[in-house]
Each structure stands twice: as C-alpha cells, then as structure tokens.
Amino acid sequence: MSHKPSKLRWAGLLIGAGLLLVGFALPRTSPEVRLNALEIANQPMGGDRTVRVAEVFSETPGWLVVHADRGHRAGPIIGWTHVDAGEHLQVPVRVRLPETLDASGLFVVLHADGGTLGRFEYPGPDAPARGPQGQTIIDRFQLSLKPE
After folding, report:
1. Domain architecture of the chain: domains with CATH
2. What's the gap between Cα 111 and its chain centre?
3. What are the DSSP calls for the chain, one per residue?
C-alpha cells in the first residue's frame, strides 16, 4: 500500500485551497444600495415656523419641498431647503403659511437639484426626484399650527 497521495487527491486539495483563498478575497457582504426616500411625521409647527423631515436619503444634491394640499395632491409650494446627497435626519424646512391654509394635509416632496447647484429652480430643472419604479418621492403629513 502506497502512502503517496494520488493525483486526483492532490487536484482536490489544490482546488479546495484555491476556493478557500478566493472566499477570503471576496467581500462578505455587498454594499447597501440606497435609493431616494423620505419620511415625515405629523407634528406641531416649530416656533421658528419650521417643519422637520424625519429622514431623507437623496442620491444626488436635492431639495426638500413642502407643498400645501390642493385636492389631495401636492399644491402650491410653501417652503423648501437644500440637501446634499446622502442621508439626513431631522431636517428643518422653513415654511410660509397663507392665512387660508388647511394644515391638515401637507406634502413634502424630494426634488433633484438639476439646474444651478444650490438655486431652487422649479418649475424647471429641479424636478421631483423619482424612485426605482419612476414614482415621485413624496409623503403626506399633518401640521398643528400651535407653536411648540
């Protein structure tokens, strides 16, 4: 009986060692892909006439734009603020409230900064940002007009 490893066994050992080395060289997890998204909660009006967007992720520089309700759709713009690309928490947006505003339904929409960087141009190149299925990135909220 020979104690020499067979060629087949050597091949198996080499293949196994190669797979082990490749396994260590490959990343263990793929990087998380983040898409445009936002979230806002019902809230009281801030003493400085702001609303706070709880969380936003923008793939590119963009704008958080607050709209009044017009027939259960985003209507006139009442405030906006610029955001850099990336994730942001508790973003304040200063709003101008008309006397006749029904604050029981407001909308916040993420817009791309598609024109001159840092200059809000809507209507125009700063169009609403889109999600993976082409949907507008929008959320509805209610505002209590009593300052905090």
Report:
1. 37-144 (2.60.40)
2. 11
3. ---SPPHHHHHHHHHHHHHHHHHHHS-SSPPPP---EEE---EEPPTTSEEEEEEEEESSSEEEEEEEESSSSEEEEEEEEEE-SEEEEEEEEEB---TT--TTSEEEEEEE--SSTTS--TTTTSPBPB-TTS-B-EEEE-EE-S--
Q: 103: how many CB neighbours lie within 10 A of its CB?
A: 17
Q: Report pTM.
A: 0.76
Cα separation, 9 vs 132, whole angstroms: 50
Q: pLDDT tens digits, residue range 64-77?
A: 999 999 888 999 99
| pLDDT tens for each residue of 40-99 | 999 998 788 899 999 999 999 999 999 999 888 999 999 999 999 999 999 999 999 877
